[in-house]
Write a structure and sequence with these properties.
By secondary structure, this protein is an all-alpha fold. The chain is 66% helix and 2% strand. It has one domain.
Length: 167
């Protein structure tokens, strides 16, 4: 078996921690934000079920195939989902947790991926509220709270996916 050498040793056949986290963020937003999933999750109405709450929460970065008459068109309707993916990818690559952490490896990759998704969701919500139709500071603050809550409760998925790559 032939191993390809890299400056730091053999190249892993797995992607980087940031790359696997970015792929997970894209899939999470793409699948759970889809019109089919959001319609299904919206039909779950048991107020006492933590599972139903979580399944509805996963649909937070909803995107659409048409603007449904929303001011600003299709891009404004999907701005939050688009920004979430872009910011998550950027923050996953910018947060160098594995290089500067006192505990290198899995623990820092997990928390770095989770933190990147929390920040990305909060920032995406704020920017979408400020640059979308009917911008207001109150709306931006309320959306930031919802976005950070979404990121906190779902960011562990991105953190776990980051474990699959090399630092």
């Amino acid at each position: 078996m032939m191993a390809f050498l890299h400056r730091s040793g053999p190249v892993s056949r797995y992607g980087t921690a940031a790359g696997t986290g970015a792929l997970a963020a894209l899939l999470l937003v793409g699948i759970c934000g889809s019109p089919a999933y959001t319609g299904w999750a919206g039909g779950l109405d048991d107020p006492e079920s933590a599972g139903h709450f979580y399944l509805r929460l996963l649909a937070w970065p909803a995107w659409r195939l048409d603007a449904d008459g929303q001011a600003g068109g299709l891009f404004a309707a999907d701005l939050r989902a688009v920004l979430l993916v872009i910011l998550a990818v950027a923050l996953l690559y910018l947060l160098p947790a594995a290089q500067v952490a006192r505990v290198p490896g899995s623990v820092s990759q997990f928390f770095s991926g989770w933190a990147a998704y929390v920040l990305a969701a909060g920032l995406a919500a704020v920017l979408a509220a400020l640059f979308g139709p009917d911008p207001s500071m109150l709306g931006a603050l309320q959306d930031a709270s919802a976005g950070a809550g979404y990121g906190f409760l779902t960011g562990w998925i991105i953190g776990t996916a980051s474990l699959g790559g090399r630092a």
